[in-house]
Specification:
The chain is α+β, with helices and mostly antiparallel strands and about 160 residues long. The chain has two domains: about 70 residues, no CATH class; about 70 residues, no CATH class. Helices cover about 45% and strands about 15% of the residues. It contains five helices and seven strands; from the N terminus they run αβββββαββααα. β3 and β4 form a beta hairpin. α3 packs antiparallel against α4. The longest helix has 23 residues.
């Protein structure tokens, strides 16, 4: 039976879509579980050529002892620009005030860990807003150095 199935897969030129993030798709859910990879997804070569960015992911075991599989396409997510801390940041106008205000924000939480986390979130948002106002300081500094360098060259040529 299994040989005929494999022959059919080869005859139809079906390809297996690899499963991401999990080795096994079935568990006997015993105290020391036996794990199997029984559930697979196959596609025609034409389908794979059309959907180059296809992927197969697993979901959590909920109702069955088999884990559900979901096929989808890779999505390119362009997140928002991150704030990168530079060593000269604390010397710029408004930095120290922003940190003090963000850190001094009153939060409605009794858990110290949650308070710390929320203060970090508040500081993160504040620093992102502040960095938009200040601009790309590293780029500005590099441009200033380039102008200074050109002025020095012009002075040397006189």
């Amino acid at each position: 039976m299994m040989g005929r199935f494999r022959y059919l897969l080869d005859d139809l030129d079906l390809k297996e879509i690899p499963l991401l993030g999990r080795k096994y798709t079935r568990s006997n859910e015993g105290l020391s579980p036996t794990l199997f990879c029984l559930d697979r997804v196959f596609c025609f070569s034409d389908w794979e050529d059309i959907f180059l960015e296809c992927l197969l992911q697993s979901l959590a075991y909920v109702v069955s002892d088999h884990c559900p599989l979901t096929a989808g396409l890779k999505v390119k997510v362009h997140g928002k620009r991150r704030f990168f801390f530079e060593s000269f940041g604390p010397n710029l106008d408004g930095f120290k005030t922003l940190v003090e205000e963000s850190w001094g924000t009153h939060l409605d939480s009794v858990c110290p860990v949650e308070q710390f986390y929320l203060k970090l979130l508040c500081l993160n948002k504040g620093l992102q807003k502040w960095s938009r106002k200040v601009g790309n300081v590293k780029l500005q500094l590099d441009m200033a150095k380039e102008i200074l360098h050109r002025l020095e060259i012009a002075r040397d040529l006189q």
